[in-house]
Every structure is written in structure tokens, then in C-alpha cells.
Amino acid sequence: MSNPQDLYRQKLTSPAEAMRLVRDGDSIIVPTGVGEAPALLTALSEQSRDFHDVKVSQILAMRKYGYLDPETVANVRHVALFFGGATRAGGQAGWVDFIPNYFSEIPAQIEREQIPAQVVFSMASPMDDEGYFALSLGADYTMAAIAKARAVVLEVNPNVPFAFGDCRVHVSQVTALVESDQPVMEVGLPTIGPVQIAIAQHVADMIDDGSTLQIGYGGIPDAVVMQLTHKHDLGIHTEMIGDGILSLVECGAVTNRRKNYLPGKMIATFALGSAKLYRFMHRNPMLEMHPVNFTNDPTLAGLNDNLVAINATLQIDLLGQCGSESLGYAPFSGTGGQSDFVRAANRSRGGKAFIVLPSTAKNDTISRVVPVLAPGTHVSTSKNDVNYVVTEYGVAQLRGKSAGQRARELIGIAHPAFRAELTAQARQMNVL
Ligand code: COA
């Protein structure tokens, strides 16, 4: 067998040349968020008009590449597995496509060819002496796609950390390599206001020392993290690692010591944060990055006792159905790992699943606790799974409660200005 360095040299090419590996009709799998490969996607954009019916499938596209253009969708079309800022408008206008999914199940869908994966474009760390690259920024579904794809193209960047865990790809599995050295994209923490802080305080009060945390995406989950600095021996088994979790490690609140499942280790599937976070991940024995069918599997994650899942929703109806990912029929994001971790926390001994939301939107003119979801709303967490729901007005506990009890609990945490109207509507619906 050739030595890894020889293979590396043989496979090294330019981004423009690498595009020859793409065929009409192919689906290109790209990792979540900042794991996307900018040099390759720029080259694809520059040549997009040469292709026909090529798809790019990804969770949380970060940059608005040239191929994201309604004029060229017959050439190259984006398929969102979760909408982000770069794709939301295209999704709402109908020229970015959408495949609904549970994040945990995307690898199985790729393996079963329900989600096609002929090509992979991924960022990767530099190769180690044994010939391995780490897909530390997004092991997610990309590892499954690598096992399936006809062509695997890695964009090797010295700023990508070499993390431990099941996120390594050997040079012999790779079809072509390109090199880039731009800093990995940094994503700051969202702005947090008094409402987010009030919600976070309610959640933090219910988190015991020794709990294992999954921190979701959005402003409130990050606000919760900031309220946890005085806690002890927290553990991490999550989907996304970001700067919030890093700050809990730095202040000593996270030790992973009391985790009963994978003690001593933090587990995640993708990273989104600052250069400091990416440096922290480099060869850090405390952290493992794994595919999402491992991190988010509700049964496996539920093996963590006292698993606390904190995830945001956009609105909730009086039965507890969470419309977390669309505003009516207009798509906003995706299910991501929300449902996976709600179910995991429900299975965990001592686990708590929190769904968090401000009580209103648009300067208190719209209640986010609603009698029924608007037509077309995508339900992310079902009425059968939802448990703790938290607004700035308190905590509603729903599991095991009847429809009438749920309505009462949820009206109790709605904005006071909407409570009478919600009660009247619940009566009209024969719920109260
Ligand atoms: N009607 C009208 N507008 C509404 C609304 C409603 N019912 N609910 C929310 N909005 C608006 C907000 O006002 C806000 O607008 P702005 O940006 O102009 O201020 C916007 O929608 C986003 O709402 P916000 O509460 O700030 O959302 P967020 O940034 O905290 O993100 C999501 C929440 C989208 C991340 C979350 O709902 C989601 O996608 N959940 C599913 C995925 C998930 O939980 N993954 C977890 C594992 S990582």
C-alpha cells in the first residue's frame, strides 16, 4: 500500500479541477454549518451553469454562494436539511428545496439511499502521520455520506482542529484533496435581552448539579448557559458545541465527572463558534466528535441519567404542539435535533426536556402561545413528547396532563395581555 503522504500528493488538485468529479444529476452532501467547504462551493458556483440537475444538500448553510441563485436552479439547486440565513429566503420563495428529517436519522436515510449522496464536499483538518483527517466541524451525516459516495473531496485547512471521536477519514477513502487556509468561519453568540435572561433563570433553577446537558440552537439556550456558571460537575452530551459550552468548561462548571454514560468526555456532532472554540477542540482528550446517529440517538443519549435538553420554539398551541421551524407555511429552520433530544431526555432517568420561547413576538403584538397553530405550521416536537415549556412568565409541565390541564398550564405562562382571549378560545374549542 502507498504511504499516506504519497497518496496525499497524488490526490491533491485544484478546486476547479475537482469539479470534474461531479456529474449531472448528482447530489453533493456538505456538512453542517462551518464544516462546509468554501473553496469547493465557490468553484461549484463559478461552474454552476455547466451542470444540470445537481443538488447540494446541507444543514444550516452559512454563506450565500453564487450557486444559491433562482436563475440557476436547473443547474445546481440547494436542498436544505435545515434552513439558515443563507437559504431561508430561497426556501420561502420556493427555489431552495427542503427535506424534512430528524437529524439523528439522516445517516440512515443516506445509507438507505432515501437521501442521495453521490459526492461529498467537506472541510477537514490536516492529515496526521497515519493518513487520517478529522471532520471535526461536522461529523454529523457526512461520515455516512463518505461511506456511500462515489467521490469524496476534502478541503484541507490548517485552521480545522483535529478532534477525537468517530470523525476520522483515511486518505485512502478520499477521491481528491484541495487545500485552503482561510480562518474557519466564526459565529458569535446571539444577542440576549431581559426576556431571554428571565426564561434562562427559570430553566437554570431546575438544573441540578451533576446533570448532563444538551444545548440547542438560538438565543435562549445560550442565555441558559450563562446562568449555569455556579453549577457543579455538569456534563455535556449534545449536538452542537459552541462558545457557551466552552465558557462552562473554562469556569469549571463542566467537569463530565458525574456522567454515567461516557464519563469524563464531552460528546457533540458539529461545532459552531469562535476561533478560540476551534483551538480548544484541537487534540483535546476531553472532547469527542461523533456522527449524529450516535450523538442524537434518543435511546443512546437517554442512557445519560439527568439529561437536560434545552431547545427553542417559535410558537406552541394549547395542546403543546411546538411549531419550532416555520411561521405558518413559511419555513424558518428545521427540526434539527430538537425532537431527538426531547425524546432522549424523556427516556433519561431524572431527565428534563425544556422547550423555551418568549411569550410574544413583534413587540408584544403577537402571542406565541396560540389556541391552534397557523395553517401550514411545521410541528417539530409533538404533543406526545413535549414536557417542560418555559416563557419569561414561568414553567408549564405537560407530560401526563390532559388537554384541559395543558391549556391551563400554558395560558398561565402566556403574556398576561393574551390570557383572557386564550381562555375564551380554549372554552370555544371545548378544551376548558
Ligand atoms: N409570529 C411572528 N414572528 C415570530 C413568531 C410568531 N409566532 N415567533 C417568532 N417570530 C420571529 C421573532 O420575532 C424573531 O424575529 P426577529 O429576528 O425579527 O426578532 C424570529 O421570528 C426568530 O425568533 P426567535 O425567538 O428569536 O428565534 P431564535 O433565534 O431563538 O431561534 C429557532 C429559534 C429558529 C432556532 C428554533 O425555533 C428552531 O429552529 N428550533 C428547531 C431546531 C432546534 O431546536 N434544534 C436544536 C438542536 S441544535
Structure description:
The chain is globular. It has 15 helices and 26 strands. The protein is of the alpha/beta class and 432 residues long. The chain has two domains: 4-179, Glutaconate Coenzyme A-transferase; 194-428, Acetyl-CoA hydrolase/transferase C-terminal domain (Glutaconate Coenzyme A-transferase, 3-Layer(aba) Sandwich), CATH 3.40.1080.20. Strand 25 (388-391) and strand 26 (394-397) form a beta hairpin. It is 27% helix and 21% strand. The termini are far apart. Strands 4-3-2-1-5-7-9 form a seven-stranded parallel β-sheet, with helices on both faces. It binds coenzyme A.
Give a quick set of tags describing it.
27% helix; Glutaconate Coenzyme A-transferase; 15 helices; 432 residues; 6-stranded mixed beta sheet; alpha/beta; 7-stranded parallel beta sheet; 21% strand; binds coenzyme A; 2 domains; single chain; 26 strands
Briefly characterize the structure:
The protein is of the alpha/beta class. It is built from 15 helices and 26 strands. Bound molecules: coenzyme A.
